[in-house]
Amino acid sequence: MDKKAVQKFLKKINRTKNYIELASTISEGFMNITDAAACWSGILDAATNQITSRKSKSAEKFNSEIHTEIKNIKQTVLDLYENFVIEDIYDYFTMISYGNKIILPITYKNNFAGYIGIISSDTDFHNKHSDIADILLGSINARYEIISLIEEKKRTQQERTEFLAGISHEFKTPLNSIIGFSDILAERTQNPQDAKYLENISQSSMYLMELIQNILDYSHSEYKPLELKLERIRPKQIIENTLKNFEEIRKEKNIIFNYTLGDIIINADATKLKQVIYNLISNAIKFSKENSTISIVTYVNEKQEFIFEIQDKGDGINKKDIGKIFNFFTQINKQQMNSQQGQGIGLALCKKILHAHRGDIFVKSKPRHGSTFWFSIPVNLT
Questions:
Q1: DSSP characters for 87-130?
Q2: Is the pTM of this model over 0.85?
Q3: What is the pLDDT of residues 197-213, one digit of tens each?
Q4: d(CA 267, CA 208)
């Protein structure tokens, strides 16, 4: 037995990330350790409940009798599994695992999860290598379990994401009607109090629409890389247009915008960059106290990065919470939350968008002294 080959095999097994990698590593590893004529494995894909990952490794030359044995074993195992009589599979392995063959069952939660077939022209092959094969099988079973748990978690997350996307689409249709009809009624009514009520309905519906859109953006981006449509844009123009969207709430809270915007041209996805800027300005207003100031500065640093910085005079963020605010569905200060503090999606989306631009987002904050958020992206992104 080659101890170095065993150690190398175990290291590779512990690095495998999916069923196909596991199957390939098993076949190559057992060939190197036992010097067999051929090794193959059938790995059960937990998502489809089918033995779909089959990888074969064989010596350049072996006789037709061994080839026929391999073919028959593979077909018999598939036939047995399709009938789903697990005991029959184990009995079959016990019956044929002798002489020049070692057949090992891969198990997960006491169920059949695949198998390993090793074959040689040496009629004493089983006696020579079955002990080490059984020992290595323990590591293989453990890795299969880890991969299965990871895949199960991914499927659960994806199902949650698909559910969120579906229900969000269902919510958008009636919300659009509520917003549209309340705006029409607000224009027609002569009663100031009714107009105020209708305005509240419209604003609340718009807030819900914004939240739903964030959920949709999250669900679309969670398992797919963001695709950017790069173009030459002027962030100053985007910022000034975005600020106009908050004019009413700014007046209501008597907030002053104090900004110095460099007139810079950069390469970026205009729609997605606007989403980041909108979220950061929206958050600054939400958390700012009445009669306070929000400062915005933009410039290009020495690394040729575009910098956007926004500072508010709100309640600030505790140091222990700063690391959490860019995670999806994470809220802080839940005991003090009000209905306008969001659902922990906006900043996470900002971070994902900026990372797609090869940039990043940062924050410094002190409780009761406000927060400063800033982001950087390359000026000449290609």
A1: HHHHHHHHHH-STTEEEEEEEETTEEEEEEEEE-S-TTHHHHHH
A2: no
A3: 888 888 778 767 876 77
A4: 32
